[in-house]
Amino acid sequence: MTVADVLLAVVLLIHAGVLAVLAVNLLAFARDRRRPLPTDLPSVSVLVPARNEEDTLRLLLPTLLGQRGVDLQIVVVDDASEDGTWDVLQSHADPRLLPVRGDGPPEGWVGKPHALYQAAKRATGDVFVFLDADAQLRDDRALARLVGRWIDGGGSGTAMTGVPRYLDRGAAALLTSLVPFAVLAALPIPLVPRTASPALSALNGQIWLLGADDYRRLAPHEAVKNEVLEDVKIGRYLKRSGTRLFFRDLSGEVAVRMYRDFGEAWRGFQKNAALLAGGAPGRPVTAAFVGFLLLYSVSWVAPGVLWALAPGGWIALGTLVLIKLAIDWTGRFPVWVSLLAPVTLALGAGLMLDSARVHATGAVSWKGRTVG
Question: Does one domain contain both 239 and 317?
C-alpha cells in the first residue's frame, strides 16, 4: 500500500464523517422550516453597525423600513465613517430610524463591538436583532418571521443565528462560500442548543437575535470588546452563561452581499482566517493553528492531489464536490462555485497562511483601521 493509498483512505473516512454531520444538519434545517410560527410578537430593535457603508445602507434601509407585522425601531451607529454613511442615514426621515453618530472606538475596544454596544444603549425593543450593514431583508414579513422563529426556539434565555442567502457573485463568491462551509461541514447543528459546551457553539455576526433583558444582563459586547472575532467569542460566551443557542437556515429571511470583488474578499477574510484556525492575536502561528491547517489540508486540499496520484483519487474529489454542493445550496450560491470546490478550498488554506503572515507582522487593516 502506497502513501497515496493511505492518504486516500484517511480522506474518505473524514469525508464520510462530514457527510453524516451534513445530512443531520440539512435534515434539521428542513424540519425547522416546517414549524408553525407565533403571530403575537414583541417589539423589536434592529441594531446595525456602519463603518463606511453608504452603498450598503442604501440597499438595507428600504428593506427594514418596509417591514410589516412588528413594532419596529432601527438603531444605526455611524462608526466614524469617512464616506457618505451619515448623509444616507439623514436622508431617511422616518421616526422608526434612530441614527447615531459615533466617534470611533475608545482604547481597548474594537470598532464593531463598540458600535453595537452604543446601539444597544439606545434600543427600546423587547428583542434585539443584530444585523450587518451589508445585509438585506428579503421581503416585508422577514423580520416578523425571524422574531417568530426566535420565540419558537424558546424566546427569553435563547439566542438565534444562522446561514443567510449570499448574494456575492463573480470570484468573490468563491471565498464567501467558505463561511457556511466552515460551520455546516464541522458542527452538528442539532447539538448546539442541547449541550452546554462552549465548543459546540456558532454565532454568525451577520444576523443574530437575543432578548433585550438577556442582553442587558449578560452585556456580551462588553465581554468581548477587544476581540476581532467578536461573533465567535459571543457565541461561546453566551453558551458559558447558560444561554441556549440555535443555528438555523435564515436564507428565506436575510440576504448578504459581503464583498464586491475577489481582492476585497481576500482582504476581508485575511483579518480573521488565522484566528478562526486557532491562532492568537499577536501570535497567529500556535500549535492549534498548525494542527488545524494540517487537518484542513488533508481533508480538503489533498483530494485535488490524490486525483492525479491515486487510482481511486477521483472518489475523494467527487465527495469533496458533493459536500460543497450541498452546503452551497443552503447559502444559495451558483452551481459553478460548487464545481470549483477544489480551487476554493485550496484558496482557504492560502488565506490561513496569508492571514498568519499579516497578523505576525502587524499589517492587518480593514476600512482604514488597524485590526488586532
Answer: no
